[in-house]
Amino acid sequence: MMWGDGDWQDHYDIADPARLVTCASLHLSPVYTAEVSINREAGYWRSILNGREIAASPTIEQAKAKVEWRIANELGQIHDSYRALLKRRHLWADAGGHAQAALRHAEPGRYPIVLPYKNCIVGLGDDVCRDYRRRQAMGDYYAGFSETKLKILSPPRHQARNLEPQEDINPTDTAPIFRLRAEGDGLEMVDSRWWFMPRTQHGSYKDFRRDYRTFNARSDKVASSPFFQESYRKRRCLIPADGWYEWTTPETAWKKKTKWVIEPRAGEWFCIAGIWDRAHASDEGEIETFTMITHAAGAFLQKWHDRAPVVLERKDWDRWLDPAAAVDDLVDGESRDLFKVTYHSGPEPTAALKQWAEK
Questions:
Q1: Alpha-helix runs per DSSP H in 258-325
Q2: How many CB atoms are closer than 10 A to CB 246?
Q3: 3-state secondary structure of 109
Q4: What is the DSSP code string of 23-37?
Q5: What sign does the CA torsion over 72, 74, 76, 79 have?
Q6: Could you say which residues of the chain have pLDDT below 70?
Q7: Which tens digits make up the pLDDT trace of 182-213?
């Protein structure tokens, strides 16, 4: 462990001949006392820190990792040198003594990027949404915006192209966004790349993506970040979607993850709060890009990630796009309890895991 000599102590049910772990404890006196224990009736593991339950997980390894993440977050023990390793939300890699050496020089108060767990690194970075879904036809969007003050003027309805469904939209993919027209009289739909590059950057788009993970923007930093703040004030957009994806990580790194889709219980499409910009990249020329804003996940979605995309209410679409409007209140706070989580693909989850996911 990176916090002194403390380490997890596994405990067994004495009456159990199979000697299955029923709970594990961690004592980092005098500040932290942690425990993970199984709730056999519900089929999930509880993460408890200083007497308070902070998370529920399908496996003991994930329960331990969430406790360690919380401690790392409070201690600010992170280091950007591992950012390149985070190709997914959870990445396991051999760390040796390098992680602890790096973390000793970490800058306090930064958002945690990595934390060592025994001989591995568990990546728990800012990324919340790196795969979302959009399946509506253009007519659905004309109908949806007919209920708002701002209407879609570009393209005109009779000139609109067919929009093919996009089951998986990943960072760097091109997807439609809605933004205010230059005339300010209505909306235009444009295709944009999902991985924000601000106009202040003039190098290659490829190098920028290697160095900066800007396909998500945190709500508590978007107004002050040098990358995002100007677009947050002047170039806000709506990202149409009908769901996004999360994964449950298996206990062993080489097994495939189970994919879940998060979507509104009502089944309707929605818009995520976004910002866009236009830059000149040395390798791709003029390029328009966007990012989606994330905020704290509500109680239900916290089982999957501590953050969630900012899903705007339809009545707030006009205000979000108005550059003169104050919008901080739209992205602050946490996600509303509007969503359901269902199995999508990958290894078939157990009945207990399905119950844990869907309740």
A1: 317-321
A2: 23
A3: coil
A4: EEEEEETTTEEEEEE
A5: positive
A6: 1-7, 11-22, 26-32, 40-42, 71-128, 249-256, 352-353, 356, 358-359
A7: 999 999 999 999 999 999 998 999 999 988 88
C-alpha angle with apex 134: 129 to 139, nearest 5 degrees?
150
State the virtual CA torsion across 8, 296, 249, 106 in degrees, nearest 10: -50
| Alpha carbon distance 359, 117 (integer Å) | 29
- C-alpha 9/C-alpha 179 separation (Å) is 54
- Spatial separation of the C-alpha atoms in residues 344 and 339, rounded to whole Å: 15
From 322, 330, 270, 260, select the one nearest 295 (Cα to Cα): 330
Residues 6+ apart with CB under 8 A from 320: 236, 238, 273, 312, 327, 330
Q: How many of the other CB atoms lie within 10 Å of CB of 269?
A: 17
Cβ pair 54, 66 in contact under 8 A: yes
Residue 111 φ/ψ, nearest 5 degrees? -70, 135
Residues 6+ apart with CB under 8 A from 255: 347
DSSP secondary-structure letter at 59? S
Q: Output the CA angle 260-305-101, nearest 5 degrees.
A: 125
DSSP codes, 182-243: TTSSSEEEEEEEES---TT--S-HHHHHHH---SEEETTTTTT-TTTHHHHHH-EEEEEESE
From the list 145, 129, 284, the residue with the least C-alpha distance to 215 is: 129
Q: Which two tokens stand for residue 244?
A: 């996004």
